[in-house]
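[step 3/7] fold_predict: job queued, chain A
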Amino acid sequence: MNQKLVKLFTIATIFLVFSTILKAETETLSFDSIWTLVDKNSDSLKAARIDADAARIGQKRMERHWLPKVYADLRGFQTNDPLTIFGSTLLQREASSADFMTREKPTSLEGLQALSNQDITPFLRPDTLNHPGVQSFGMGTIGIDLPLYEAGARSAAAELYQKMSEAMNFYALHSELDEYTLTASAYGQLLVLQREYTDLKIVQNSVLGIIGRYQLGNTNNPVGYSGLLGLRGLNNRLEALLLQNQTRQKSLVEYLNEMTGGLPENWQLTQQSSKEFAATFLQYGDVDSGPSFQTRYYQKMAEAQEKKAVIDTAPLRPRTGLFAEAQAVTGDRSTGSNYKAGFYFQMMLLSPTDLEAGAQAEKQVEAAKLRAKDAVEKEKLMLSKLQSSEVVIEKTIDLLQQSRGFLGQQTVQSLQLFQNGAINALQLTEVFSRRADVIQAITEAESQYLQVKSGLVTMRNRKITEQSK
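[step 4/7] structure written:
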């Protein structure tokens, strides 16, 4: 019977290993292939990169602020406005004395001779100017404006867009790292959970084998009956743990499926331990390499806010520049042209909405600098905490793995002792329970380890290893 019980335990283990081999026949997706899909399909990554591209375009636009502006204006219109008609006639350079005469003009030489002996004041009254009728004109203008001094607004805008471009580039890099570590953590936790499921299933099959094969006691044998109840209770606990495990696995698979844009229905992980996975895909850079991408983003945004302060206060300062403009006007008489060129000086004497703009800008700059400073300080504290946690959790995992091996050997020995009658079912239940505890502890430690490594990668960038290329 001793050999039969040990053989039952061995068969359960072989069955689970064989099931794993059958699953391996389905499509296997490495983490690299998963990350490639996430990098291609993530909407948040696309948005961050588009923002960075837009900021770079804005920077290029504002770098041309010193170039002159050239504009054109073409229009055709009808009007009965006396001033517009008279001005347009002058612009055609075709004004005549008829434009100043009364409408009641003599129509013959005799009439003119008769009129010469009369008072000619009515003849010169500007009736035609007041009532010119409706006339049509066409007008075209082309001009150039070259600002010489704009209170630093344009140059500050160029520097603002440069800082914004750098900031958005850092934000895009941070977003990429954030998505990478989330994906790596999900993939790594699936590895951990699959290992936990296999280990828990081995323990459960052993417990079920004992419950189904042996009559451990009845109500007249309190010790044996208590052992049977203990095994049944342990089986219920294992069933609950397996259900929780499957739920967590399903959630992680759904997350990866959403982030990648869709995965094959039957796919498997590339099997490796959590430490091997972290060593390959969650290696981080030099801890003294400087602030993280996220902190650099805050720093650049603070610098951009300083440039924005210059822009906000510019309307209260003078502007100067050169301008030139050429114009052509056409009407029913002719086509005329003109030009003007010169220097301008502009200054806003009163703008209520711009009052205290300087004070507001100073507060905004101060707040941005404080946010950047706070990000640096918190990052230093978090970095130190994560580094300490990394060392502790690595040692914890090593110790738990040793305990797992010890308990595996103890389980085999305890099964033999139980068969020989040296220990009762209640004592055997305690061995199985401790083994389940260690399996859970390893899962928790490995999950924390992956989270810590992910945090370090986010803060100190990803270090590309030969295996992860």
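[step 5/7] annotate
Residues 465-469 have pLDDT under 50 and may be disordered.
The radius of gyration is 43 Å.
exit 0
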